[in-house]
Structures are given as C-alpha cells and as structure tokens.
Protein 1
Amino acid sequence: MAGHDNAYSRVVFWLKILLPLAALVILSVMFLVARTIDPSRAIPFAKVDVTKIAREARISEPTYSGVTEGGSSVKFTASEVRPDAQTKGRSLATDPTLSYTSPSGNTASARSKSGLVDQPGNLATMTGDVTIDTSNDYHVSAPHMEATLDKTRLEATGGIRAEAPMGRITADKLTITPDKTAQKDYVLVFTGNVSLLYNPGK
C-alpha cells in the first residue's frame, strides 16, 4: 500500500512540473506562428481638420420660408450656409435657390452656385450664373440678382438674356414685382438697352 502511495505522489509531483512547462511551450509557439502586424496596412482614416470644422460653423440644407407683404409665399434654400466672418448677420450660401409663389399660384424662382443672405436687411443675393424662371414661360440668365425676403421684389442686373413667349430679350436690368392691376400675378419689367428679337412662330 505504501508503494502505491509513493508512485501516486511521484506522478502528481511530475505533473505539477510538466503541465506548466507544456502550457508555456504552446503559448510560445502561438506567438511565433502569429502573423506580424504591419502598421502600414492599418485601416486608413479620413484626414479631418477638426479645428477648421469648429471654427467654420455651417448648416447643411437650410430652408427659410415666409410670407411677403404682398401675400406671396417666399422660400429660400441652399445646400450649405455658413456665417460671413467679415459682416455680422450675413451668411454665405452654396447652391442657393429662392422662389416666390403668388396667391394664385404663379411662381418666379432663381438659382445660382453662390450667394449671400443678409438677415437684418431681409435680402438675398446671388452671383455667377444666375437663372430665373417664371410660370409664364420666361427663362432668364444674369450675372447678379438681389431679392427681398419680406417683400415681393427681385432685381437682376449686369446684362440680361431672356427667352420669352414672344422671342428673345436682352437688357441691362430686369425687375419682378407684383402686378398693380392684378395683385395675384407678377409683372416683369426690362430696362436699359432693351432689345427684342421677335419670333412670329411663338
């Protein structure tokens, strides 16, 4: 019986030594076989200038809507608006659009690649390739346009080219205001070196 106990004790003694050694060998093999991580192949992250984003506050896809003194609804949208650092209360707009809709449903809308919004003055300005379309089939292009947000008034300047129902019109300036004889409609007035190329077919 004593011999059996001695043999059992020797087995337990050697297992206490061999099992930890075997575990160390297995761990060593795992670390040696494992593929070395290549830092150059790490997942790339977009380079974002956090400081610039914090400094240049901006609003994406803003919408302003209201009603003018004449009863027309006015709507201004843009893909992005950010404050103008040089003038308080003024914002720079990207891809701005502005539209008036009369109580009878007639519309006059303008769009361009860039513009300004003067909140204290209730004024929207567009520059560059400005296009103006009306529901009575006037399609106008101009380099500059100003429109009021509290009144129905749009002025395009800098050389006007228009495709009208009766033909082609060129002028220095175009003004769109409510028609005094029919407040539910708009009137377009071309001034300064006005030229009409009449198209009988239209």
Note: The CA atoms of residues 11 and 172 lie 108 Å apart.
Protein 2
Amino acid sequence: MKQIVVAGAGYGGLRAVEKLSKRSDIHITLIDENRYHYMQTEVYGYIAGTKDIDEITIDLESWCEGFGHNVSFEMAKITHIDHEHNRLSTDKGEIAYDTLMIATGAHTRFPTFIEGLRQHAFGVKKLERAFEFRHRFEQCVKQKLEGDNTPIDILVAGAGLSGVEVAAEMAYMLERYRHALGKNVERIRITLIDACDTILPGLDPFLIQSAQKRLQKLGVMVKTGAFIEKVEADRVTFRNGTTQSYTFMIFTGGIAANSGFVPEIFERNQFDQLKVEDDLRLVGADNIYAIGDVAEIVDKRGEPLPPTAQVAEKSAEHAAENIFRQLDGGPTAPFHGEIDGLFIALGGRYGAAELFFLRFKGMSAYYAKRLVTYIYTLGLNLRVNAAYKTRH
C-alpha cells in the first residue's frame, strides 16, 4: 500500500486528505505540530469576541479517525526532508513516504527594516497570538466598565483582508458595548494603517469602496500611505517623522512561508514560498508537491495567486488528482487556478462580496459568507461525529 504524507493541517492539507481518502489502495498520514485545525479566515470574530474557540478549531485526531483505517494523524514538528530516501525527520522520529504533499502554510512576516515591530506587535497567524490579542481587547473593555477614563488606542497595521476584517469587527463590537460603557466607549479608538495608497490593495474597486464606507461608519480611522519606520512599546514613528501613540498593536502586513524544514536545494521566492512546476510538484522532485501558502502558485497568465483558503483548497484538490494520475501510471496535469470570488466580513451582519460577475454588499454578503463557512464547518464536524460514534 502506497504511503502518502500530507504535511500541514491548514485548509489545503485537510482538503487534500479528503480527496486522497477516496482511494482505498493508499494510506494517508496527516502531520501537524498542533493537534487542532485553526480556521484563520474566522479569526476576526474570535479576536473581537463574536466567535468562541470551538468555532475556529477542530480536533485533528478525531477528524482523521472519521475516515476509517486509511487515514491517521501524527502530532509532530517536521525538522527535515530526506528527499533522496523519501523520509521525514520529526521531533517524534522518522516517517517514510512514497509521495509527500507540503501544505504547511505561512506565518506572519515581520519586516526586519521596521525596527521593533516583531517585539511589540501581535500577529494572527497562530492561535496563541490571536488568543493574546483577544485577551488584550477584552481587558480594554473591562477597564472602561470599571470607569477608567484613560484613552486606549488600538493600531491595526496592514489594511489587507485580515486587517480590514479585524478592525471592522472590533469597531462593531465597541458599538454594541455602548449601552454598557456609555461615552467611555469613545475612549477606545481603532486606527487602520497601511503603506499603500488604499486599503485592500489589488482588490476590486467595489470591495475597496464598500469597506471604506463601512469602516468610516464604524468610526475606524484609516491612514494610508503611512510607512512605519520604528515601533516602540507605546508609539510608532512614520517615515515622514510623525509619531502616533498606541496601547497595543496587531500586524497583518504580510506572510512568510513555513518552509524552513525543506532542503535548500529547492528554490524559494523572497517570501520563502517554494517554487513549483505547473503541476504543483517541487522543481526537481517527482514525488513532492507543495500547495497553498507555502508555495508560489500562479494562474494561467503566470501571475501569482493570492494566499487565500480558496487557492489552498483548489491546489490541494489538483495535487491529489495528480497523485492519482501517477499511481495509475499516467502523466500529471498543469494547474490552472483562479479566484472564483471573495467575501469580506465588515463588522456585524454586514459584508461585501465579489462572486464571479456579481458584486453585492450588506446583509446578503454577510449571510453568503456565513453559508460558505457553515458548509465548511459542517463537513469537519460530521467527520468528528463519525469518529465519536465509532469509538462509542
């Protein structure tokens, strides 16, 4: 029986396991250093307190058990790939594979040219950092409930998708707290900062304008064209010499791939993303695929695709199909990925969406996003429930 190893339990890794499990002549091992799957696309709600821990995580061991005997889970940290002997080294020992799929995602990239950024800012790519940020936000609300009149300034640096969603959801929650906090709620201020000339750079103008209007309505101050040069414990300094004080800061300005365990002979880009052939195999490797954020994946025009859950899942499905083709003795096929649409949560029951040729905003976009999330989590929970019934 062929041994397929999927390294990484993000959106792409889980979709790959689902696809690969349809064949009974292979065994799939899912490896991750955490015992849970972390739904990063829902982190904005967790930070603001509108979602709880059970809504953004799922137990991986139970999920894998739901597939039966041909899928297993190993909680381990991968340290090295011996591509010549088809073996993974981990902190728990070695694991052999016939085919490897790397789906280890990415982490927050703190640019080294911004002095002090890494030491003083929170990222949201890891659950523990999101938990810390949520705790700080809740502490701010508690201070105001107790009558503390000290101004609190929250900075969100990076006005891409994550930054906009986090800022909007926090601002919406502050509006909800107005009945409890009164005028004191106005002493918690949220500022969204980006070095680009616009928020959501590169996205459709409809999404940008919808987000700008919603953020303005929610009271979020937006600063674009603002290059951060230095971060200290209580203030940031911009390139133009101006400064801004803050209470705490979240950084969502970029990513770097989790590819440190991959041998250096495999080429990477400036974000440590692995270079892949058009069939998603590593350049120079016949039996190693890379998908999702850890890989540099391009569309049919050769333009890099954004690091989204949608791209991760599509590339996972295609890589799995190519593995099936190899098992059956056939040639692999090139990946022609594209973005079908995009949903943005903009605080409360409000959102903006671009879906094929449709563009809409408001409650309809919010509920469309909720439906997509519901279908995704329903599939995960059904697997876990199947495992629970088998055990009992």
Note: The first strand starts at residue 2 and ends at 7.
Protein 3
Amino acid sequence: MINFIDKSYFIDLAGKDPKDICRKTFCEYDVVNKSYILSVWGDEYAVYPHEYKIDCISSSVKKPHEYFYLFIIYYLLKSKEIELCNEWISEKDIPGGATFFRGPHEIPTNLISELFGNDIERFRKKCTRLYGTPIEMADAAFRFNITPHIPVAVLYWLGDEEFSPEAKILYDKTITRHLTSDIIFVLAVEVCSRIGR
C-alpha cells in the first residue's frame, strides 16, 4: 500500500471498466491479478486498485520519486482520448500557472543546471540514456514521451559571463486536459530529479 496516495484514487480506479481505461491510456489489464500494466518513461508499472498498490516491475532506472506514483494513478483515472496538438507551453502558460508554480511549487530545474553546468555533451548523453529524442530548441533540447498522451521537452542553455546555465521544461498544450497543476508539478519534479541525478 502507498500511504501518501488517498485510497479514494484506488477505489475510483477499481470501479472503472478496464476496457475503457485501457482504451484511453494504451495500458493493459491483467485479469488474473486485477492490475493495470502501464509503460511510463520506459519502465513498466503494475497498478493494483484492490490492493492500493503500485509496483515498478522493470528496473531500467533507479526507483522514481515516491510522488511519481501519484502521477501514474491520476493518469490512469483522468487521461482522455485526445490528439496531441504539438504546441509546447511552459508552466506559466497553464491557467493559474504563474501563481501556482512558484514558492513550494517552483519547478526544480536547478537540479539539472547545477549538475551539468556548461557540460552540454554530458547533458545530451544523459538525456539519450533516458530515451530522449533531440529536438531543435535552445542550445540543446530533448523530447521525452512520458506516456502516449504526455510528452515533455527539456531545454538547456549554456551559461556565460552574465547568465548561469539554465534548464526549462515544456509540455504539450493538451496537458491541461489530462492533469491538474499539482499533478503537473509532481511530473516535473520527477523529470528534474531523474535527469539531474
């Protein structure tokens, strides 16, 4: 059982039609174990609604930040059947984002910039190892398909005499149709933590 996730999420998921969930999220349902199997950022996760449990069943990366499991169950519950619009936005473009994403909800992109500094090749190698696809933005940038409906882009700028190196996360504009601001924050923390460690 994952104590920090409210049981109501699991109860809600247990009451859903597995066929409907699988169609919306491109996951699979294990009838024997009553679990959903979902690929998230290159790893497989099993979600057991009746046991209030989520397990990472592959080990290509270190264990994710514990709050990432909240993103996983929320995605299963709330993801919608909509096409990506392929228009990137920042957290400030999200309704209410300029107010929400600051203070305790400031996205910790400093984890990335502090690790890599001006070593942009090291940044590129790390992003490639994490299944990133290069895109033409900033000094270097990579797209990560977290789930089929949730891509993110991580942009990186080198520093100079006036400015320190900087990282930024962008999201497909449709993200607000799937996730609330607090869940987007949970996702962003995992992105920064995974790249910046």
Note: The first strand starts at residue 28 and ends at 30.
Protein 4
Amino acid sequence: MTPATARVAAADLDTGVGSSSWWRVALTGQVTGPLAALILAVVIFSTTTENFFSGANLALVVQQSVVVGTLAIGQTLVVLTAGIDLACAAIMVMGSVVIGRIAVSGNVWLALLAGVVVTVLLGAVNGSLVSLASLPPFIVTLGVLTALTAGARLFTDSASYPIKSTLLTALNHGPRVGGVTITYGAMAWIGLTVLMAYALTQTKWGTRIYTVGDNPHAAELVGINVKRVLFGVYVVAGLIYAIAAWQALGRTPTADPAGYPTANLDSITAVVIGGTSLFGGRGGVTGTLVGTLIVTVLQNGLTHAGIDSLYQQVATGVLVVLAVAVDRLTRTRQSR
C-alpha cells in the first residue's frame, strides 16, 4: 500500500472520513502530471493552429469526451481494484440497443429503465465471475465483450434504431453560455466525476476499494469483505455504463449495435493517461477526467493540424505506453 493510501485508509476505517479535505485529496498527486500535460497540449495546439482555441471548438472537445469519459469513470473503479473491464463499451451498447428497440413501441420510460437494468445485470455478471468464481477480470470481461458484440447484433438483427424521443436525446441539449452550448451530458459527466471523487476519498467504500486493489490479503486481515467489494464495484460500473448509454443516444441519436467499437480501449487509455495504476490501489476519477480530455485534445488538435488519423492513433498509443512505464517506475521506487 502506498503511503498516501495507507494514511487515507487508516483515517477512513476509523472515522469514515479522511483527515484532509476530500477535494484536496482528489486533486493532488495523481492529477498534477496529467493536468500539466493537458495545459501544455492546449497551449501548443492553440499557438500552432488557427481555430483550436475557439469557444466552439473547446465545447466540441468536451462534447466528444463525454461518452468515453463516463465509461472511464466505471473503468477507473474496476482498475483501482487491480482489475480491468474490456467489455464496458459493449455493455453500454447493449443497453442502448435495448433502449432503442423498446422505445420504438413508444414507451420511452420503460425503455430507459430496461436499459439500466440490462447494464447493471451485466455488471453483476462480471462481478460474480470475478468475485465469487475468482476468475481473472481480463478473461471474464474479454469473454463478455465477445459475447455481447455478437449478442447486440443478434438482438437487433444487425439493425439500428433511430431515436426520436426528446427524453432519450435530452443529454445532448443544454443552456447556451456565451454562444456555446453546455450540454446536460457534459454536466452529468463532470457531476459524476465529482460524486465518485468524493466517494473514493471520503467514504469507507472508497477506502476499501483502494485497500483491495493495493493488497487484497491485507484487506481481508483488517476485516474487509473483498468479494463483496469487488462485486459492488462491477455493479456500480454497470450503472455508470447506463448513463453513458443515455449520453451516447444524445450524441448520436441512433441505437447502433456496432457503435463505439473502440470505446472499450479508449476508456482504458483515459484511465492510464490520467494516472490510475493498472496494478490497482492508486489513482482516481479526477485524473481520469483529465486523461480523457488529453486524448480528445490530442485527436482534435492533430486534426486541426492536418495530421492523418492513423498518426493520431500512434501518438495515443505512445502516450499509453509512457504512462504505464512512468507508473511502473513510480511503484518500483515507492517499494524500495
């Protein structure tokens, strides 16, 4: 367990809250490096391209980040337990096509509820296999990804459903401020980040997640039910994927079984670049928000610079490798 994690764990297990202000815990350490990288990227693209720093383009960057950013919140919870969820976007897509198919009949509220139930149940399936059956998260979620990729097509006969309901597309709308639309989907993403940052740094539930991810055997010794924590994390992640499905229906008003094919890996990329350790026990959702913006800013800025999309993928891949290498080096130094 890292020193920071140990201090928070000790305080939370005794009192239920940390000794420091929760927002200070959420915004220090992990976020510093990614935030500096984000600011540097914005400065570079603002000075080397014409329209990058316009209000309309910056709003577009945020809107492009919303779905993957929300998925990455659920992914962060899983990664903090030293797991991984390769099926997060597939779960989201399954939820969205269930919503779309039921909404065709006109019962929009039932459709939305059914989508939430589906994503939560799929999260529970992942959680059960990882916690109760003690199967590796990588294998479990890879299998679920494969099954859902085909399952969504079978469920819809490979058809997509146009979304016409104002309720289902509501998250893509919002108030205009200074000529720029601040969408409810973006508000939901930021609000959910704040909520999860508070939960992770200020509650016993959050402390247990860090402790389980850092050392599950030590967690058991201090009385933490490791299996319950793991199961709960995957269920909460499933609920978060339902919110992402709702956001996706607003962004692209079509429930498409082939939608968001790279979002599974994009969410992992955002988590890693945001400073959360793939080895568990260190990181948080605030860094993930910054990591998501870094990826989107990089893609958007390179597009403005006229760089081919293939080179954008190369740049993103290099960033991921560097982030993992830095994390590995940091943990090695801390263990000495």
Note: The beta strands are 161-162, 176-177, 180-181, 254-255.
